[in-house]
TrEMBL record, chains A, B:
Pfam families referenced in this protein's UniProt entry, alphabetically: LOB
Organism name: Gossypium darwinii (Darwin's cotton)
PANTHER family reported in the protein's UniProt record: LOB DOMAIN-CONTAINING PROTEIN, LOB DOMAIN-CONTAINING PROTEIN 4-RELATED
Name assigned to this protein: LOB domain-containing protein
Record domain LOB: where: 12-113
Similarity-based family: Belongs to the LOB domain-containing protein family.
InterPro entries, A to Z: LOB
Length: 120, 120
């Protein structure tokens, strides 16, 4: 089930264990998702969610869903670091505004189609 | 700067201090945003972000931005509790799909308008 090719004692600790200054065990829950060469990926997740919460959230999920959970947490954490007030909720508001604008434009275009068809 | 009307010793502790079983000081950073009568609001934020991270994030913001930051964190935390794999990133994907669909519909309606105008 492990996605990394680490061998005990052979590879450097994962980015999480390195930041937390702890031994990176062979069954480390972070190692498959936080490789040593991407330290910032874990740093933001740790800053926003906290390592122990991330650990707990991953442990509560089946292994095949953990990669997606990590991706969404990394996305949320990066958004929160960029925008400490709104985080990725800022993106949601902006997408909802785009939807409102598109729905208005679509309604206008459809009304024009109906109008023009009268003269076909 | 306080938004709550608590008086020391007169009111119950805020929802955060109650959950964390600590004394709710008069300058408690959580109290204005997590009233005693909304325990679930803090419970999810604590589960997802951790009380000490929320404390740190609020302290790093000016007081006038903390209410919005709490609202967005509560939104994100509730989304993560409902959907532990995708959290509010699931909402972002779904909104983006709606935008793609609306853009396609709009392009079709606009093309039809152009076509119909040829016969005006």
């Amino acid at each position: 089930m492990k996605e990394s090719g680490r061998k005990q004692g052979a590879a450097p600790p994962c980015a999480a264990c390195k930041l937390l200054r702890r031994r990176c065990a062979q069954d480390c829950v972070f190692a498959p998702y936080f490789p040593a060469d991407e330290p910032q990926k874990f740093a933001n997740v740790h800053k926003v969610f906290g390592a122990s919460n991330v650990n707990k959230m991953l442990q509560e999920l089946p292994v095949h869903q953990r990669g997606d959970a990590v991706s969404s947490m990394v996305y949320e954490a990066n958004a929160r670091v960029r925008d400490p007030v709104y985080g990725c909720v800022g993106a949601i508001s902006s997408l909802q505004q785009q939807i409102d604008a598109l729905q208005t434009q679509l309604a206008m275009a459809q009304a024009e189609v109906v109008h023009l068809r009268q003269y076909e």
